[in-house]
Design goal:
By secondary structure, this protein is of the alpha+beta class. The protein is 50% helix and 18% strand. A hairpin with a 6-residue loop joins strand 3 and strand 4. The radius of gyration is 60 Å and the shape is rod-shaped.
Length: 573
Amino acid sequence: MLRDLELGLGARLILIILLVAVVPLALAGTWLTRDAGRSGEDLLQQRMEGSLAGLSRELGAHWLHSRSIFLDLAESPEVLDRLSGSGNDDGEPASPRTLDSLRGIAHEVIVRDLEDREVTRFRPADPGELGGLPVQLPVHAPLTGEVIGSIEARLALEGVLVRAPEWTARTGGVLGIMEPTGERSILPTPFDPQLLASPRFLLGGEEWITVHRTLSDPPAILVLASPLEPFTAPFREAARRGILLLLAVAMTGFGVAALLTRHSTRTLTELQEASAAVARGELERRVDVAGPREVRQLARAFNTMAGRLERTLDALAKREALAAVGEFASGLAHELRNPLTAIKLDLQRVEEVSDDEERRKVLLERMLDAMQRLDRTVSGVLRVAGSGRIRPRPICVGEPLAAALRSVHPVLEERRVDLEAPPDPEALPGVVGDGAALEQLFLNLILNAAEALDDEGLRRIAVEVSGPEADGSVQVRVQDTGRGIPQEELDRIFEPLYSTKDAGTGLGLAISRRIARAHGGEITIESEPGKGTTVTVTVPRAGAAHDEDEAAQDDSGPPEPRPRPHSPFRPDS
């Protein structure tokens, strides 16, 4: 489960501590809380059973003494005479001696014959509030041992109940003595005695439990009822305090574990950050060697790896610098070849129109412009290819675009290409850039478009300028109706020395993208085989701040000459 969570090492360790330590402690605390009430109830029930056991012993001893008195009474001549019919049955009171023997033993004694007729009655004392426990003993004839009657008595419980508060005080309960039938309570209770028949009951919203003990001699049921709350509350309070202590210990342990985990994983965090920094090219980053032994070994290995990588990349950079010299030389030759081709074509036309002075003058002026562009190209390419930097200034994007179109015009005329371009370059928006570098960029794109056209079919190139866009940029698009570029070649089109043309050097688009990026812009290409290609150049729009700083930014020399304001998109005649 932990492997499916996107958690760091520190978070995983803390989660393990929670699952292994804190959660079991919480479960143990919950169990203790639930068991505390049960423990209090068990203790109360044990005490109640002990109290009833003591009370039953007291009652048993009292009954043994009372039984002997009743047996002596049954064998007395006074009782035997009345059962035989020879005694006084006219209501003569019992003898004082007999009454004295029964005082404190029974509230009332009744002698009955075999036909259950009352023969005589003894009342040694007023029964008071306690009715007494009913008991019955047979009366035997002295000589034959035959049962000739019975003695029914209500056993006095005052002597037994003298110690009753001592037994009930241990549980804070209420004592009840029920007749053997369980229908009537001999002792008065502060609540309905019928509740004593249940093992537990509610009284005033408080739960009570009862313990029963059934006696056979004398026949009676002893009941002790006690409330649960006084006994279970201390246990629950102790459990609550225990849980709070467990929680305090768990939180303390969790906090200490979190601190230790954070300390242990701090070096790992630094390793992660340092790895990301090295990936960004900050090869000088190192980490502190601290923490557990394994982490220290990992930190040392990282520092060693970073050092070796820095040295290796330094060596590779030196080798790449040598390779860049060859690439730059090839690129410079590529950029010089285009204007030289235009000059060559114009020279051929000069020979053809040697009698036309006006036409020859136009061609010579165009060749002079091409020579000047050659000079600017060498300077611009050296600056861009060598350092990747340009000399930006606010210019109208129509200036380098018009210059590029004038330079490429002989090639387009030679290839019979239909060109669609903005008629008024001075109305185009301003950008921040290097005029010579942008002219070279546009020239490369237009020449590539011309070379992509097939000999048959529609031969058209469209140059569009839009902007400023919402992001403050100007876009120049060059669209042709050529053969298009397959997707597998489109992914590599900007690689140096990669070309889709048989005679291409593979440097035109690579240098063009470097120029665009040096301006803070970008080049994108959309192409579909058989339908043509659209190349979009995005460069920043000129702002007011650039206009104010134009003199400071262009302090290396006089500005380049502005092209003549005639349209470059039509051949001069």
